[in-house]
Amino acid sequence: MTAHPTLADVVRTLEALYPPSTAEGWDAVGLVTGDPAQPVRKVLFAVDPVATVADEAIEWGADLIVTHHPLFLRPVHSIAATTFKGSLVHRLVRAGIGLYVAHTNADAAPRGVADALADAIGLVDRSPLVPSAPDGAAHLADTGIGRVGRLEDPTTLRAFAERVAAALPATEQGVRVAGDLEATVSTVAVVGGSGDSLFDAVRSAGADVYVTADLRHHPASELRERAEFEGGTAGGPFLVDVAHFASEWPWLHYAAADLTGRLADTGTVDTRVSVRRTDPWTARIGSAHRA
Ligand SMILES: [Zn+2]
Known about the structure:
Homohexamer. The protein is of the alpha/beta class. Helices cover 33% and strands 23% of the residues.
């Protein structure tokens, strides 16, 4: 007979990998649905807790979904099936599927979202962009927001952006670049998800290029204006903007492997990384005229 862990065992293991205490104060992480006593045989990993992922979990017979993004970030008065989120909760509970969220705690962790993104694009000698423990607490040395490191071989911004595009899942947005494509880049900062609040840290780290998602016009424009004013057109940091979903997706494989490894003594689970692309953007119409 094969032993399977309980949901409580799985939650304990996930909390060891991604301690809830390292989540941002505004975040909402942890177990959303599920009975701690229920056995867990199959775990599906996905970026977003959305209807298509619930479909996939139900079709596959999953007992648990682990997502990066929270289903509920703010308090709610009702989970009646009259709303899209309430309906999702009903479907999961009816199917006996737990939902567990590891968000900013998974961003910060060793082998978390930022590390997985950094590995996917080949960053070595790296450390957190904003360490969780700036005072140097040893157990948190590898924990913090984003990562900064170097490429094994300096390359052009163009070749680097192409590498990023090849390393991440395909999205309609693709990869947007701000800067001189022929400039040389070596030091790279990455932040999975929306990263335009970290520009000061990126500049302080001396990054030649910053890979993140959801960059808006004004922050991006001002960052490049300042860089060109101070360092000329070849001056960094340059920007590589990827789809939010794509920037966080590489972590799912790490989470699946690390959960399986840590549970080995408790029991076996079958894991799967969702194949549903939950990036909300479904098409891109190229501009008709190029200046
Ligand atoms: Zn995100």
